[in-house]
Design brief:
Layout lengths: L2 H7 L3 H8 L18 E2 L5 E5 L4 H6 L6 H12 L7 E5 L13 H18 L3 E5 L1 H7 L6 H4 L3 E4 L2 E6 L2 H6 L4 H19 L20
Parallel strand pairs: 2-3, 2-4, 4-6
Antiparallel strand pairs: 1-3, 5-6
């Protein structure tokens, strides 16, 4: 069965993961241990999208389990979310050699899988982690330094880009901007999904920036 037809017939994240495990649409599959599909709740209303698996992710078969992943876990927890409330995926599902950025061709080959993930999960909010996610999902010419922290609505989903956790490990000065962005995400989640516990007092001042359509 052609891939597109199989994707259209797929009606669950579990079935999609099985289909994706046999994907050879680009050369990345030949240089990695396997497909790193995603993790989290298939009913999540909050989704995070990064760029691609690293060495540890390739070894374990799960996204965001290395140093950057541990930092992302802390950010998610600090905002009051549990892993049962989020879903995490990447632009490409196979590790690029040397942890380089995926090429436009590789990202395009993998995009049908990601779009089907988004369709099945049906999140209310997507957080795009880093420039690769921003450029592949919103605008190929967008710059993360200019667009982070701004809302963009696509097909009824509110999307915001922020720095990738790996960037925070290299430059600690980016931690505060990321936290400001995540507070906006938390605030919108409150309004869309329902009232939850307030943010810790040590992180006051939730942004009230208007949404961009």
């Amino acid at each position: 069965m052609p891939q597109q037809e199989a994707l259209e017939r797929c009606n669950s994240i579990e079935a999609l993961a099985v289909l994706a495990s046999d994907c050879h649409s680009c050369g990345l599959r030949e240089g990695c241990r396997g497909v790193v599909f995603g993790k989290g709740s298939p009913k999540a209303k909050l989704m995070f999208i990064g760029e691609g698996p690293g060495a540890e992710e390739d070894r374990q078969g799960l996204p965001f389990v290395g140093a950057a992943g541990k930092l992302l876990d802390k950010i998610i927890a600090a905002a009051g979310f549990t892993m049962d409330e989020v879903y995490i995926a990447n632009i490409v599902k196979c590790r690029p050699p040397g942890n380089r950025n995926p090429s436009p061709e590789e990202a395009a080959a993998c995009k049908p899988w990601l779009l089907k993930q988004i369709e099945l999960i049906n999140p209310a909010i997507i957080v795009l982690l880093g420039s690769v996610a921003l450029q592949n999902m919103i605008d190929p010419k967008a710059r993360i330094t200019r667009e982070r922290g701004k809302w963009v609505r696509r097909q009824g989903i509110y999307c915001m880009a922020t720095y990738h956790p790996a960037a925070l490990l290299r430059d600690a000065s980016k931690k505060r901007p990321v936290w400001e962005d995540i507070k906006q995400v938390r605030d919108l989640y409150h309004r869309l999904i329902g009232c939850r516990a307030e943010l810790p007092e040590r992180f006051p001042g939730i942004s009230k920036a208007p949404l961009r359509r």
